[in-house]
Amino acid sequence: QVTLKESGGGLVQAGGSLRLSCAASGRTFSRDAMGWFRQAPGKAREFVAAISWSGGVTYYADSVKGRFTISRDNAKNTVYLQMNSLKLEDTAVYYCAVGWGQRHYEYDDWGQGTQVTVSS
Q: Average pLDDT, whole number, for the chain?
């Protein structure tokens, strides 16, 4: 089993940037695809981005395409989410998880989440 820990969240003004990190421990995850999800208050958890084990394949939710970039460093057991041009509607708790797909049940080993708040 792998343990995931997200970091890098915080308060940022609209139009600003943040980079989230997801550090894995417990076992190597270099052969695992990974994803980012987010959940705003009162809303369902939604897919944000995913990356293949090699980093060669990525895909994004339409709502973040062109603004967010997912990447990984397998030597550091870490996955990143670079978020640019942040909007108020990006405010949510962001989670990383092991898996592949756009549905939360396709993922295992979730982190505890990191809060991102975008202000006007």
A: 95
